[in-house]
Amino acid sequence: MNDLSLRGERLFTMDATLQAPPEVIGPVPEGVRINFHVTGGRFEGPRLRGRLRAVGQDAFLLRRDGIGLLEVLLTLETEDGALIDMRYDGQGDFGEEAYERFLRGEIPPDVHLHTFPRLRTAHPAYQWLQRRACVGRGHADLVRSTVRYDIYALG
């Protein structure tokens, strides 16, 4: 029988800074839409490191049940100049009362997040990233407008 246990290799830790205040679109049929613009950051791991370009966006939706859905697009630039397109969906549980609290102007101070990154590049040294299925665990500090993720490749 094949071994289906879950194993992972840490690719990198990523620290991102977000524009403050965020761009609040407001209540839409699915929940509250909030856009967080990435203003920069760094990533570092055993096989790659570099900076986050200030071109990213997190299109965030806070549902009425308190679950926050992430749709993120970033560009990573490695220390040797390679550009890596990073896109991920994910979610975080802000608590059952989060939607109503947000409408009253209360911002949750922090939340844990889980993501599913996809990495794409044309650079030959990093083609191996495109063959990896990835997951991320993160923490957003919405008071300081920062996010930290540990990104893992499943193997």
TrEMBL record:
Question: A Pfam family for this UniProt protein?
Answer: DUF3237
* Annotated InterPro entries: UPF0311
What is the superkingdom listed in this entry's lineage?
Bacteria
Q: Report what the protein is called.
A: DUF3237 domain-containing protein
Organism equals Solimonas fluminis
